[in-house]
Write a structure and sequence with these properties.
Elements: E1 2-8, E2 18-25, E3 30-39, H1 42-61, H2 70-94, E4 102-103, E5 105-111, E6 114-120, E7 124-128, E8 133-135, H3 142-148, H4 154-157, E9 179-183, E10 190-194, H5 196-199, H6 204-212, H7 217-230, E11 237-243
Antiparallel strand pairs: 1-11, 2-3, 3-4, 3-5, 5-6, 6-9, 7-8, 7-10, 10-11
């Protein structure tokens, strides 16, 4: 198994509201990855993303030894996201200091039954094979909805003034179930989770080209971070890469 994560304030933001967490359970052949991008003010955004990521991981860890199939993993992920949402929502409504806070949440779990991805917001997950790259998650954003309605092109979305407005987030409503995606990675394939601070600056072709070189994932994470920083990094930047090998 090979994985690595990296996060940075970027070139403009004074604090980092992005959080990533990983957990490897070798006894149960399970790897867990989650990226959260907080919002709601410097302190509140960080609280939301940290609380959501930790709650999600903690819940999943309790159940890894009981996973029986891919559908069971998916249900546990839905439960974990809903619990995380409740934690963030309750804190935001009970403490004026954190009113209105929220966070994206994109998570992937690799097991012997296959991989499962959960998503709320516009943090992304890509699947990279030996021949192409796929964006697995769908952004919950204003511009993504506009693209689907045919109002703007995907190229126009990159420059749209509302490109950072999301339509769904953890903690902004009492009930926020995630989108779920099922995958079956082959050995040598990758998954890449990231906040929009990275995906807004890097193309799918750049992601594929770098990972196609087969360098250690730590090196690739650092290269992607340097790429984002070289392009001004106006937002926090987070990248997590996992390469599947035999087993995990």
């Amino acid at each position: 198994m090979e994985f690595w994560g990296i996060t940075d304030n970027g070139k403009v933001r004074k604090c980092n509201q992005d959080v990533y967490k990983t957990h490897i359970d070798e006894d149960n052949d399970t790897a867990i990855f989650v990226v959260c991008d907080g919002m709601g003010g410097a302190n509140a955004g960080n609280i939301a993303s940290t609380l959501a990521a930790e709650t999600f991981i903690d819940h999943i860890i309790k159940h890894t030894q009981n996973f029986t199939n891919q559908s069971d993993v998916a249900q546990k992920m839905i439960d974990a996201v809903l619990i995380a949402n409740t934690k963030v929502f309750d804190k935001s409504t009970q403490d004026l200091e954190f009113a209105g806070m929220g966070t994206t949440l994109t998570a992937a779990i690799s097991t012997k039954f296959g991989e499962v991805v959960a998503n709320v917001g516009d943090s992304r997950m890509y699947h990279v094979t030996d021949s192409e790259v796929f964006q697995i998650t769908r952004d919950h954003s204003v511009v993504e909805d506009m693209i689907e309605r045919g109002e703007i092109s995907r190229d126009e979305a990159h420059m749209h003034p509302n490109k950072n407005l999301i339509t769904r987030a953890i903690g902004t409503s009492a009930h926020e179930p995630p989108d779920i995606f099922l995958l079956n990675l082959k050995p040598g394939e990758y998954i890449l989770l990231c906040s929009d601070g990275f995906s807004n600056l890097a193309s799918e072709n750049e992601i594929f080209t770098r990972l196609k070189k087969g360098k250690p994932v730590k090196n690739s994470c650092e290269a992607f971070m340097n790429l984002a920083l070289s392009r001004g990094a106006p937002d926090n930047v987070t990248v997590v890469i996992y390469k599947k090998q035999g087993g995990l």
